[in-house]
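Case study B.
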Amino acid sequence: MFIYGPQQQKNLEGYVGFANLPNQVYRKSVKRGFEFTLMVVGESGLGKSTLINSLFLTDLYSTEYPGPSHRIKKTVEVEQSKVLVKEGGVHLLLTIVDTPGFGDAVDNSNCWQPVIDHIDSKFEDYLNAESRVNRRQMPDNRVHCCLYFIAPSGHGLKPLDIEFMKRLHEKVNIIPLIAKADTMTPEECQQFKKQIMKEIQEHKIKIYEFLETDDEEEMKMIRKIKDRLPLAVVGSNTIIEVNGKPVRGRQYPWGVAEVENGEHCDFTILRNMLIRTHMQDLKDVTNNVHYENYRSKKLAAVTYNGVDNNKNKGQLTKSPLAQMEEERRDHVAKMKKMEQEMEQVFEMKVKEKLQKLRDSEAELQRRHEQMKKNLEAQHKELEEKRRHLEEEKGSWEAQQRILEQQKLDASRTLEKNKKKKIF
Amino acid sequence: MASSDVARQPDKAVRPLGLDGHVGFDSLPDQLVNKSICQGFCFNILCIGETGIGKSTLMDTLFNTNFENFESSHFEPQVKLRAQTYDLQESNVRLRLTVVNTVGFGDQMNKQESYQPVVDYIDRQFESYLQEELKIKRSLHNYHDSRVHACLYFISPSGHSLKSLDLVTMKKLDSKVNIIPVIAKADTISKSELHKFKIKIMSELVSNGVQIYQFPLDDETVAKVNTTMNGHLPFAVVGSTEEVSVGNKMVKARQYPWGVVQVENENHCDFVKLREMLICVNMEDLREQTHTRHYELYRRCKLEEMGFKDTDPECKPVSLQQTYEAKRQEFLVELQRREDEMRQMFVQRVKEKEGELKEAERDLQSRFEQLKRLHADEKASLEEKKRHLDDDQSSFSKRRAAAHLLQAQSLTVNGKKDKDRKNSGFM
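Model:
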């Protein structure tokens, strides 16, 4: 049970006093009072109300408060009766849930639906109460046990029986009972029981299991019970005298079938098990198994709304908020990666573009240089030509001047000669 | 879900019913108790007190055993908490006891933060439980409850009043844990001094609004003894694991030259009262108070902090599913928003950068154009110069040609003249 360490086992010398803890727990539980919800399901006329009355030795259903089965119903309904009973200082708030109309129609497909809905709605109420911010003492109205009445046909389970139990065995503790057991002989009953248990196993129906304990005595009793499943019961509202003792029973011309006689039926076993020894366990299993099942399905549906449900089961060990927190972290990581990728692409593109620009610029520069060179060359060439021309011109002009001078000289001489000649 | 008509009648009023005989459900408390015994019990005590005040000794004495004790020094820089868990058994009852001791409490020069590690420890245990409770798949009935059920606050036996550290610490803790103040080393106070001391302490607690644990009075079986005990608070205790022979018995006691202080002697100290109240009578109540009062308060505050409410803005009750769904919606919207923001930012940057680059391109283009123009200009001027040169060249050539021609002509004329002269000269 305890799996944690590190702890050490200590043997105490002398009186400490916590052996009194169980008494403290006892006191407090009596003060708090107890609650129990019992559901009875079965066709009309199987003696459900009578059995309840016999179990609790009271007239839960009487002429004043007739059981729902006495009314004519067209559809399956779910009805609750709450009573407060006291015994030995212990207060018990008992709720009996009846399902009149069950299995009575011609077409009974889906007649289990109102039952399922009822159980689920009680789970939902409890879940909401448990999940409130301001919580108060939560009343436990969940269905702790379902007595399923099987008609004593003597052959086997009906398809309706199988269908119902298959749909409800994971929502509530099912205790199948053979009703009106006084219509079968012990051998027929034995046969019937074997057949039923075989079919239950075949269809993998999980009926309520009595837990194994370490206590030898208890184990013996539990094994006895297990051998006699499903319990065959008889109920009665009337008290008859048998051998001077008043007993509850059914009077027949051939004798009295006694309710509390272990050789006549299993009623005593049922009562002892249901009320005297396993009532608390039924509540615990409802709380720890069936309710938790409901709750985890409900919360998983909310958390994984639309998300692929193939995610590994490990995620169910978190609360929905922790789940969201993790999703947020994942998302941040995803975004970071995306951001990095986008950044990379961005950088790359920019680099490309810049490179192109640089290349263009270099090209431009180069062409400019080339043109400049070209022009300079042309310029130089021109300069050269010009100089050449000037030189040529200069020399020719000089030549011309000399010639002119010569001509002038010659002409002067001629003039002189001419003048001379004349004389 | 399609369902047939479900006529849900309002719950009929609960009616009391008499029974015709012994049904047997009066065994229910026994069934419950048997289960608890099978599962075992769990109790966690926190001891706060200065170093050397006797916390470990008291625990040893209370539980009649020798827990592993570490002697601590006075030089711890910070208050720390040390928790140890033990499995104890008395008759058929198994108890998993966790003792948490403060280490270094009251030793620092600046004690302003002394209470914080304690508060943090208590809150951590609450948080741990809350997390388990909120899980989708949880196992509460198997959960090892580490929440602190009782806090023994050790008061120094100064005889005068509470220290301010005591008041500050207890005030911070009174809404988180059941505080049971005890006067430690009570064998150093005389009876009259003790009486005055107790009154002073209680009045200081009241005037400072510190709510210590009151033994419950709602159960008739223990109301009387609890009322009496409430009047003896705080308990003055002495702890000792050593045994001294008194009369013909060996008793737990402390031996002084002037006498023997017997731990379990109610005249000498309130040890027995403490053990009675803490363990024998009210242990279960301490656990219950921790769960239904202190833990619920923590849970409520935490959930409100996280934004949970019981009713929506229109004051209609909100179910858990609705709250979770709303939160999930909010959450998804926020994720989407963040994603969009990031994309937006990127788009922005891209646009900016594109703008920059385009600008640079345009610059380059204009430079290119400019250079082209420059070149064109230069080329034009060069062309002009060339033409000029060509003109000069051609005009010079013409001049030269003309001059040549003239010369040639004059030569010819001169030649004729000369010829003529020559010819005439012959005459």
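The longest strand of chain B covers residues 80-90. The remaining cases will be described in the next quarterly update.
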